């Protein structure tokens, strides 16, 4: 792909797409929920769980059960066996009594002080095509085969003990993988990695931030794509950079701290906008999805108003989460089924709102603060020695 040109950026300004990159959050004080500490929360019956919310959460929890009963929980709170009783019951539990299901099998816990911050994400739909057409010049790449983890001894392990992602160069040396600037300038061209082509580089940038989306071709056909991997380079939220540089706020020369505001800045300052996007060196690779929804980190579909992204070090993926925020539309029960590059730390969540204009609007403006409770299988707190 040629470098992102000013003309291409200016073309993207014809239509601004709402969305919701989150505000920056503090680094966690500990590396897991178990290390940070948990304490009991209120009885589930006191949460005033709505029937429709409970039905949707039960359905999402049921879809998560094959994974939650078999995967390692990096939060240190649960083991696969802890979930089996609830998952066995969920398989045949009647939706009419969904609220009773959660009271019967779960207890609430606060991680740390329970103070929560939540943003929103959605499944964007952008103009794209499986084949390259006139005006469709932005490649959407599949996962490159040379993107690998270093062999032991070829690089320093990461803090979590895993080897870093990168590639081996022509001399057999392990080096970092191409960053955003290099990929935009054509580092991957001519290798047959393109799974589709898009019309707008800015839309592709925010598609990568969201992690999944739909491509609508001129003939009306839709291709759903989802996260396949990432280049191993650090993720930098450009909203945070704009905030640090005094570009976000109120008053002359300031922009709203939403995707609308960020895109407005990029459109009004295309040269600076192109440079700003490249400061996020992370690049996301995609694959085609054939299911009925975008897939989250558990490899099950995420559902509107039911699925939330969380940091798996602090929330067991598959666990129900109760949010009580200053944004009423995000209050209620969610199921942690996804993760995100910007979703780091205890009680940091990203609520999923689906696709379409309403979803984009809600996700774009979502910035809620309040309290969070994690629902754990009954007996978990006792086993952890929490009174």
Automatic annotation (TrEMBL):
It comes from the Bacteria. GO terms for molecular function: hydrolase activity, hydrolyzing O-glycosyl compounds; peptidoglycan lytic transglycosylase activity. One of its GO terms (cellular component) is outer membrane. It catalyses: Exolytic cleavage of the (1->4)-beta-glycosidic linkage between N-acetylmuramic acid (MurNAc) and N-acetylglucosamine (GlcNAc) residues in peptidoglycan, from either the reducing or the non-reducing ends of the peptidoglycan chains, with concomitant formation of a 1,6-anhydrobond in the MurNAc residue. Keywords: Cell wall biogenesis/degradation, Lyase. Residues 125-287 form the Lytic transglycosylase MltA domain. InterPro entries: 3D_dom (IPR010611), MltA (IPR026044), MltA_B (IPR005300), RlpA-like_sf (IPR036908). Coiled coil: none annotated. Pfam families: 3D (PF06725), MltA (PF03562). It is an enzyme of class 4 (lyase). Its EC number is 4.2.2.n1. GO terms for biological process: cell wall organization; peptidoglycan catabolic process; peptidoglycan turnover. This is peptidoglycan lytic exotransglycosylase.
